[in-house]
Design a protein that fits this description.
Organism: Paradevosia shaoguanensis
Number of strands: 21
Radius of gyration: 46 Å
Shape: rod-shaped
Strand order of the largest sheet: 3-4-7-6
Largest sheet: 4 strands, antiparallel
Number of helices: 13
Strand content: 15-25%
GO cellular component, one term: bacterial-type flagellum
GO molecular function, one term: structural molecule activity
InterPro entries: Flagellin (IPR001492)
Protein name: Flagellin N-terminal domain-containing protein
C-alpha cells in the first residue's frame, strides 16, 4: 500500500480556495461596475426579467420620441389656427351692411383688406415643419394650397378665380336687354308737340338731365326735377331747317352722363308740316332712346298678355330661380308652376287698390333667397312701384315694366353678389374639381363643366377620408394620436371662398351700385363666417378644439408613461444592479475567509508522518 508523505487533502483545499478567488473576483467586479453580471448568461433566472423590462422601456422611449415630434407639430398647427381664427373673426366684424365708414373708407378699402386676409390664410394653410406640410392630409411633400396669385390670376394658361367669376357673372345676368324691349321710354306726338314720359325711363335707372335745340323753330321744355319723374317736351312751332338738331342729355344707371343728338333731315325727316315733323322726330327719338341698355333680368322672362303677367326661369344653375309669388291685394290673382323650369303669374282680373303689394320670391345662384316686391300706386310709378292703369291690361303692362326695372336694380346688387359667391363655391371645391361655365358666350350657357384641364386647382392634398387620421403617431400600446389636417375641410374651404369673393369685388365711390353690392356681399360674408359656424364639422374652431384635445391627451399620456418608466427603471435596477453596501460586506467577509484559508492551508501543507515522527 502506498502512503503519501502528506495526509492532508491538499487538492480539496486548493479547489475551495480557487472558488473563493472566483467569488472574490465577481464581488470586486460588481463593486466596480454596480452590475450583478457582465453578460446575460451570468444573470441566470433574472435574465428573462431583464429582457422583458428593457423591451418595455425601449417601447416607452419610442412613444416619448413620437410624442415629442407630434407636440412640436401641434405647436405649429396651434399657431396657424390661432391666426386663422383671428382672420375669420376680423373678416366677420370688419364690415356690416349699411356701415360704409367716414367718407366711405370702409367700403372702398374692404377689397384690399380681404385680399390681405386671403393671402395670410393661404400662408397659414401651407404651414410646414422641417419640410413637412401639415395641412395636406397624408400628402406632406408639397404645399397643399396654390399661391395667392395662381388662385386669383391663374397661371400657365390655367384660368384663375377672377376669370371664372367673370364668366359666372355673365351667365347669371343673362343676355342684355334694351329699353325698348320693356316698353321704355314712352314718347308720343300730339299735333306738333312731342312728349317724353320719363316714368318708365327712370324706373329703369335713367333720368333726363336736359333737352335743348339749336333752332328757334323748336321750343323745348326742361325737366322739372322738383316733382319726379321729369317729363320733357319739344314743340315744333315751325319747320326746322336741314341740319338743325335737338339734343337730349340723360344720366345712365352707372351715374355717368351721356347725350343723344338728332339732326333734321339726317336722323329724322322734315315732314309736310310741323305735325308730321313732330311725328317723325318722336319715332326717331323713341328708336334712339329705346336702343339704350335695359335692365339685366337674371335669365328671367317677363311678359304681359292681356291682364296677366307671366314670369319664367330657365333650366340649369344660372340666374334667378322662381320660388313663390304672394300678394296682399284680394283682387290680384297669383299662380305658380314650380319645377325646372318654373313659372309664376300675376293676374289683374280687376283693378288693384293703391298700396297692394305683389312679392315674388327668388332663389339666388348661391342658394340664398331674395324677395322682390312691387307696390301699386295711383301716382306716377317710381322704383319698386307699378302704376294702376286705366284698364286691367294697362295695369298688367305697367306691372311688367316695373317688375323688369326692379329685377334690373336687384341684378346689379344682390344677384351679382350671389353670382360671385356661387363662382367661389364652384372654384373652391372640396373634391379637387373646379367647375366653370360651359359654353360661349356665357350669357346663353345652361350648365357647368369640369374645369380641371384648364383651371387652377386650388387644393392638391389628400381629398377624402378622416382628416385627423391622415397623420397619426402611436403614443401608447393601444393609443394613436390623430393630428392630421386637410385644407379642404368644410370650414377652411368656406373661409377661402368667402375671402376670395370679397377680394374680387371692388366698390368705387363713383359707381351708384357700390353701396348695394357692398351690402349684399357683406351680408353673405357675415353669414358664412358667423359665430354659429363654429359648431360645424371642419370649422376653424372645431379643428382647433380637436387638435387641442389631442395635445391634452398626449400630455396625459406623457405623464403616465413617465411615471411608468420610473417604475420599470426601478425594477430593472433591482434585477441588474447590486447594493454597494451588501457587496462591500460580502467582499470583506470573503476576504477574511480567504485569508484564514490561506493560513490554514499553508500550515497544514507542512504536516507529514515523517515530520511528525521526527
Amino acid at each position: 500500500m502506498l502512503v503519501n508523505k502528506s495526509m492532508f487533502p491538499i487538492q480539496a483545499g486548493y479547489s475551495v480556495i480557487s472558488k473563493m478567488n472566483e467569488q472574490l473576483g465577481k464581488l470586486q467586479l460588481q463593486l466596480g461596475t454596480g452590475q450583478k453580471a457582465s453578460s446575460l448568461a451570468e444573470m441566470g433566472g433574472d435574465r428573462t426579467n431583464s429582457l422583458s423590462l428593457r423591451a418595455r422601456l425601449t417601447k416607452l422611449t419610442a412613444y416619448a420620441e413620437n410624442m415629442t415630434t407630434v407636440n412640436m407639430r401641434l405647436s405649429f398647427l396651434d399657431q396657424s389656427f390661432t391666426t386663422l381664427g383671428k382672420l375669420k373673426s376680423e373678416a366677420r366684424t370688419s364690415a356690416t351692411a349699411g356701415s360704409y365708414g367716414e367718407n366711405n373708407l370702409v367700403m372702398v378699402n374692404l377689397q384690399k383688406m380681404s385680399q390681405d386676409r386671403l393671402a395670410l390664410v393661404i400662408d397659414s394653410l401651407n404651414a410646414n415643419v422641417g419640410g413637412r406640410y401639415l395641412m395636406g392630409g397624408n400628402v406632406t411633400d408639397r404645399p397643399p394650397v396654390a399661391s395667392y396669385n395662381s388662385i386669383m390670376e391663374g397661371t400657365g394658361g390655367l384660368a384663375g378665380y377672377k376669370q371664372t367669376v367673370s364668366e359666372r357673372n355673365r351667365a347669371d345676368m343673362g343676355a342684355p336687354t334694351t329699353l325698348a324691349s320693356i316698353g321704355v321710354p314712352k314718347i308720343t306726338a300730339t299735333g306738333n308737340r312731342v312728349d317724353f314720359n320719363a316714368a318708365g325711363f327712370e324706373q329703369a335707372g335713367y333720368s333726363i338731365v336736359s333737352i335743348s335745340s339749336t333752332t328757334g323753330s323748336v321750343r323745348t321744355t326742361e325737366p322739372d326735377h322738383s316733382s319726379p319723374p321729369a317729363d320733357v317736351s319739344a314743340t315744333f312751332t315751325s319747320q326746322p331747317a336741314p341740319g338743325d338738331s335737338i339734343t337730349v342729355t340723360y344720366r345712365k344707371p352707372d351715374g355717368t352722363t351721356a347725350s343723344k343728338t338728332l339732326v333734321a333731315d339726317t336722323d329724322f325727316l322734315i315732314g309736310a308740316d310741323a305735325d308730321a315733323t313732330a311725328a317723325n322726330f318722336a319715332t326717331a327719338l323713341g328708336t334712339t332712346m329705346g336702343a339704350l341698355d335695359g335692365p339685366k333680368l337674371g335669365r328671367l322672362t317677363v311678359g304681359a298678355a292681356g291682364d296677366t303677367v307671366t314670369v319664367g326661369d330657365i333650366t340649369g344653375p344660372f340666374g334667378y330661380k322662381l320660388a313663390s309669388v304672394t300678394t296682399t291685394g284680394s283682387t290680384i290673382a297669383v299662380g305658380t308652376n314650380l319645377g325646372s323650369p318654373s313659372t309664376v303669374s300675376v293676374g289683374f282680373p280687376s283693378q288693384p287698390r293703391a298700396g297692394d303689394e305683389v312679392t315674388i320670391g327668388l332663389t339666388m345662384p348661391d342658394g340664398t333667397s331674395q324677395l322682390v316686391t312691387l307696390t301699386a300706386t295711383t301716382d306716377v310709378a317710381g322704383p319698386g312701384q307699378f302704376q294702376i292703369g286705366a284698364t286691367p291690361a294697362e295695369t298688367a303692362d305697367n306691372f311688367s315694366r316695373g317688375l323688369q326695372a326692379k329685377l334690373g336694380s336687384t341684378s346689379e346688387t344682390a344677384l351679382k353678389a350671389a353670382s360671385t359667391y356661387a363662382a367661389a363655391d364652384d372654384f373652391f371645391s372640396t373634391d379637387g374639381i373646379p367647375r366653370r361655365v360651359d359654353g360661349a358666350p356665357p350669357e346663353t350657357a345652361t350648365a357647368l363643366r369640369d374645369g380641371t384641364a384648364d383651371t387652377v386647382v386650388w387644393y392638391t392634398g389628400q381629398l377624402t377620408g378622416d382628416a385627423r387620421q391622415s397623420a397619426t403617431a402611436q403614443i401608447d400600446d393601444v393609443t394613436f394620436a390623430g393630428y392630421g389636417v386637410r385644407a379642404n375641410e368644410q370650414g377652411l374651404t368656406e373661409l377661402m371662398r368667402t375671402l376670395a369673393a370679397m377680394s374680387y369685388e371692388g366698390y368705387p365711390t363713383e359707381d351708384p351700385t357700390s353701396k348695394g353690392r357692398f351690402d349684399a356681399m357683406v351680408e353673405r360674408q357675415m353669414q358664412n363666417l358667423s359665430a354659429s359656424t363654429a359648431a360645424q364639422d371642419g370649422s376653424v374652431e372645431s379643428i382647433a378644439l380637436e387638435l387641442g384635445v389631442v395635445k391634452s391627451s398626449i400630455g396625459n399620456t406623457t405623464s403616465r408613461n413617465t411615471a411608468y418608466t420610473h417604475q420599470l427603471e426601478t425594477m430593472l435596477t433591482d434585477v441588474e444592479t447590486v447594493s454597494m453596501e451588501e457587496t462591500s460586506m460580502s467582499l470583506l467577509a470573503l476576504k477574511t475567509r480567504l485569508e484564514a484559508s490561506y493560513q490554514v492551508t499553508a500550515s497544514v501543507s507542512q504536516l507529514s508522518l515523517v515530520n511528525y515522527l521526527k
